[in-house]
Amino acid sequence: MKVLILGAAGQVSRMLTELLLNESDTKITLYARHANSRLKAASERVKIIDGDFHDKSKLVEAMSGVDVVYLNDMRDAQATQSIVSAMDEAGVKRLIGATVLGIYDEVIGAFGRWNDAMVGSSAPLYKSAAKVVEDSELDYTLLRLTWLYDQEGNEEYELTVKGEPFIGAQVTRQAVARLIMDLLADNTKYICESLGVSEPDTDFDKPSFY
After folding, report:
1. Which of 49, 98, 113, 205 gives a 20 to 30 Å CA spacing to 64?
2. What integer best gives the mean pLDDT of the chain?
3. Would the pTM count as exceeding 0.90?
4. What is the SS3 assignment for 16?
């Protein structure tokens, strides 16, 4: 398998890269702005490309021979459209994209009110970018991530689907990276679905670290 990680300098992307190198023989292309100064090729299976999400021609080049694209940031609809168009041109169908909770007004109760107060103004940006993917002909899986933190060894996650109330106020980046690995292991699961991602038993009024 060959995987392209867009936004490869992000924390989840770095964890995913490490898992792919340690647990698979996947070939990995890391794509990010200023990638050559921010990233290092830790294996001969890693290729680094310095590029922008708006550079469609460079994206098409990066997607040559790729089986799956992981997109680590979906807050810019124009950039997301550039990526979708590049995938169409390159003939790549499978996209796993990380976005945020609340894009369908699915976060209810006290946590929903707290989340709106914290990030409500940015929600339309993420919603517009997600719609670009949902309106595409790609085999996508969207990951609506709740509030992120780090905890080594904690890879627990639970999922809700679009149309269900969001459950859970927090999840580790380690768990998100593991979820992506699980999706890569079975490319038939959750096609054209939007998944809420959280840690079990964290249905709090706000994340425990706030």
Report:
1. 98
2. 97
3. yes
4. helix
